[in-house]
Amino acid sequence: MVITHHGRAAATLRGARAARFLAEAEAGAEAGDPQEVMARWTGNYRRGNERTARDHPRNRR
After folding, report:
1. Cystine design at 10: which of 27, 34, 42, 58 (Cβ 3.0–4.6 Å)?
2. pTM to 2 decimals?
């Protein structure tokens, strides 16, 4: 499985890791934000503004 970002490969997952990623991404979709799951798996996680952006009134549901 290849995870891409703007047409470029961000991560390549094979075998058991790919299966774990899919399971976690599906659980993340149910829990709230699957994009955070992908960011964590690709290594681009918690740059500092995610929590602030999530709590902004415009992004609340």
Report:
1. 42
2. 0.54
